[in-house]
Q: What sequence folds into this?
């Protein structure tokens, strides 16, 4: 089982900006995605949560952890 951090819509909007928020350094940005659950949760990885080094983003260190549900995509018929 893979656990990920669950974001609210408002938290996701903060991370994607503008301005886009950095996890650390000057080129590692948060990358919230929607999972494949019925709720279409906004999530980030535990690696992003743990590596976050900027005080304005400390809230990500305390996000609730939920089980990752991958999105199921249909193959393209080309």
A:
């Amino acid at each position: 089982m893979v656990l990920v951090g669950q974001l609210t819509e408002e938290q996701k909007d903060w991370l994607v900006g503008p301005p886009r928020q950095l996890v650390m350094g000057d080129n590692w940005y948060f990358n919230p995605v929607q999972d494949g659950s019925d709720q279409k949760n906004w999530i980030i990885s535990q690696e992003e949560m743990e590596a976050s080094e900027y005080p304005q983003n400390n809230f990500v260190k305390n996000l609730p952890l939920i089980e990752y549900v991958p999105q199921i995509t249909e193959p393209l018929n080309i």
